[in-house]
Amino acid sequence: MGTLTSLALVTLAVPFVLTAQTAGPASPIGAYNVVPELPGMGRPVDTAAVAARRRALLKRIGSGSVLIPAGHERNIEQDYVQDNDFRQDNTFYYFTELETQDAVLLMTARGPDSFETILFLPPRTPSQERWTGLRLGPDSVAVRLSGITKVLPLDSLEARVRAALQPVYSPRPRQSDAWANNLTPIVDSMRAVKDADEIMRLRRAVDISVAGHVAAMRAARPGMYEYELEAALEDGFRRNGADRLGYPSIVGSGPNTTTLHYDVNRRKTENGDLVVIDAAAEWGQYTADVTRTFPINGRFTPRQKAIYDLVLGAQQAAFDALRPGITMRELDGVARKYMRDHSGNLCGERTCDDREFFNHGLGHPIGMDVHDVGISRPLEPGMVVTLEPGIYIQGEKLGVRIEDDVLVTAKGGEWLSAGAPRTTDAIERVMSGR
Ligand code: GLY
Ligand code: MN
Ligand code: MN
């Protein structure tokens, strides 16, 4: 126990504090940079939130067991060349908020109020820790950090699983796992409505993303390469504490604005181009999803502004109609109707809502996945969705998408990403440095 005790002392005595940025523009979200962290072990766990999620799951199961493995770090030599990033498995994270690898969670429900949770952890390996830092091991530190009172060594898992109360639920059971029921639909239905801790994470991911978008707008100059804008954007993310990108950054200029998921980002911009940036940060396992469209030279042409304002109006119409009980499909209809009614001849003989021009859905839930679970469910307070209408006119090399993240409330919606300028006036103001 000697090493374990000293580990406990280290983590208690030397809380790791992220310091404020040392360079660049003042962060609008500087307060977020003061987050006590535990070296090598991830952020503090909201032990009450994860315990409530575990209880809710076990109540749903009623009687039986749940087996959830953690993620495994990819190996830089053996799996993917140049890639050893670790991101926790979403299901394991949802019920533990632990970033530890190769762990297993075993939960048992024996009736409505008889629940047990066991966390199995691999042994710590001091020689390995000299390369990659401290890890959680099966000891009192893990109990304290996870809030799970029963933590056992991983080598005792097999016997426990053999004796587990049937039926056993597990995420993504393979065909060879004939013993396991699929846990995923149950967890997906829980994940659709976010709890307070998840909303806090999403707000932070959105705020960081907004800071990156503003940084990219401020850096924009005709003649820049798309990757230079990408660098300013992602510098803004990382500078404000992003863990990673929520998805590969889409930075498309000129003709590339009409390619929905363009992420090559190599073109040299030209004066008069629009730029579509669809990019977001992940923080604490949750990702935002934000798109802004702006003129590389800081001034919209009348034609660009007319298309932009139609997209903006459609987004606003969807937001105004958003309330608990409505579906994303219905909101898609609201946005298209607005575009249809206000197109005039902006898109030629057809109206701009035509699938030729608005060729994707209005939006989707976000969460631990950028396209998160629950898209076909009627909205409920606590769901977080994107509203992202767009018009893409290939013949004119003209694409506009505006994407914001919205929290569903009892009364309607709350814009989460409103900090990124959204009207043409606000964008021009930010780009001119005013
Ligand atoms: N960033 C992907 C999407 O907007 O759905
Ligand atoms: Mn989206
Ligand atoms: Mn997006």
Compact summary:
The chain has 12 helices and 19 strands.
Helix-strand blueprint:
Elements lengths: L1 H12 L2 E2 L18 E2 L9 H15 L1 E7 L20 H7 L7 E7 L4 E7 L4 H7 L7 H7 L4 E3 L3 H6 L5 E3 L9 E3 L1 H8 L4 H24 L6 H14 L4 E2 L4 E4 L20 E6 L1 E3 L2 E2 L2 E6 L6 H20 L6 H15 L41 E4 L2 E4 L4 E4 L2 E5 L4 E3 L8 H8 L3
Parallel strand pairs: 3-7, 5-6, 7-8
Antiparallel strand pairs: 1-2, 3-4, 4-5, 9-12, 10-11, 11-14, 12-13, 15-18, 16-17, 18-19
Helix pairs in contact: 8-9, 10-11
Bound molecules: glycine and manganese (II) ion (2 copies).
The site of one manganese (II) ion has 4 residues, from loops.
Tell me what you see in this structure.
The chain has helices at residues 2-13, 47-61, 90-96, 126-132, 140-146, 157-162, 184-191, 196-219, 226-239, 302-321, 328-342, 424-431; strands at residues 16-17, 36-37, 63-69, 104-110, 115-121, 151-153, 168-170, 180-182, 244-245, 250-253, 274-279, 281-283, 286-287, 290-295, 384-387, 390-393, 398-401, 404-408, 413-415. The chain has two domains: 47-191, Creatinase/prolidase N-terminal domain (Creatine Amidinohydrolase, Chain A, domain 1, 3-Layer(aba) Sandwich); 196-432, Creatinase/methionine aminopeptidase superfamily (Creatine Amidinohydrolase). β4 and β5 (115-121) form a beta hairpin. A six-stranded mixed sheet has the order 6-5-4-3-7-8. It has 434 residues and is α+β, with helices and mostly antiparallel strands. Mean pLDDT is 90; it is low at 1-37. It is built from twelve helices and 19 strands. The radius of gyration is 24 Å and the shape is globular. It binds glycine and manganese (II) ion (2 copies). Glycine binds next to loops.
